[in-house]
Amino acid sequence: MLESVLVVPFWFEMIATITGAISGSMSAQRAQFDLFGTVVIAIIMGLLGGIMRDILLQNYGIYAFQKPELIVACVLTGCVVFYFGRITTYLNPVIDIIDGLSVGMWAVLSAGKALAAGLSIVPAVILGTVVSIGGGVMRDIIMNRPVTAFQPGSLYGTAAVLGTIVYTLMRTYHIFDGASAIICLVIIMCIRFGSMAFGWHTRPARDLSEPVADVMARPVRAIRYLNRTPENIADEKARRHHAKKIDQQSTWSKIWNRLRRH
C-alpha cells in the first residue's frame, strides 16, 4: 500500500483533502456557482494537489484514484456547502483558516513523500510548494479571477515556501521528527495570519533601472572629474569665483538695506 510505503496515515490525507474541498466549495458558493461547479471546485481544491504530486514523483501511481473515499469526500463536501450556503456565509472568516490549514497540510504531505521517494531537500521544497498552492492556483484560473498566490498582498506562497523548508530540514536532519509536521503547520498558519494582522505584504515589481544606472555612472563621472583639462579647470575656477562674488554682493546688499531702514 502506498501509505505504508511512505508512512503517511490515511486520516491525514483525508483531512488535507477535506480542508481543501471546504475552502474550494466555499469560494464557489460565494461566487454563486451551481451544484456542478461547486463540486468541481471542491474536487480541484481537494485532490488536484495530490494528483500533481503523484504525477511529478512518478513512483506509486495516483493515490486519489487508489482511494475513492477521497473523491467521495470532496463530492459530499461540495454538496453540503452548496445546500447549506446560508450557514456557510457565517463562516466566511473561517475560509482563511481552512485555506491556510490546507496549504500547510499539502506542503507536509508532498514534501514528506518527496523525501521518502529519495529526493533531496531542494526538489522536496519545490514539490511541496508547488503542490500546496497548485489547487488554489487552478481554482482561481477556473473561477476567472487573479491568482491569489501570485498577487501582491498577504503572504501566501511565501508561507508555503518557508514552512516547507523548515519541514524538509527537520526531516532530513532528524530534528524533532515526530513534531515536524505540526511545526510546519504552525509556521505556515502564523505567517499567513501574521501577514493579515500586521500588514506583512508582498509588493509589485519596482523599477530600479534609474538608481542602478546612477550608481554605475558614478565611477565614470569621478574619472571625468579627475581627468579635466586645464581649460575646464580654469572655467570651473572662474565660475566659482563669480558665484562667490555674487554671494558677497548679495550679503552687502542685505546689510545696506537694513541700514537704510534704520
From TrEMBL:
Regions crossing the membrane: 6-26, 33-52, 64-84, 115-137, 149-169, 175-194
InterPro entries: Gly_transporter
Main location: membrane
UniProt topology in membrane: Multi-pass membrane protein
Residue stretches making up the Glycine transporter domain: 11-84, 97-171
Keyword Membrane: yes
Pfam families: Gly_transporter
Stretches assigned to coiled coil: none
Source domain of life: Bacteria
Gene Ontology CC entries for this record: plasma membrane
Keyword set includes Isomerase: no
Places the protein is found: Cell membrane
Alphabetic keyword roster: Cell membrane, Membrane, Transmembrane, Transmembrane helix
Family: Belongs to the UPF0126 family.
Protein name as it appears in the record: Predicted membrane protein
Organism listed in the record: Cryptobacterium curtum (strain ATCC 700683 / DSM 15641 / CCUG 43107 / 12-3)
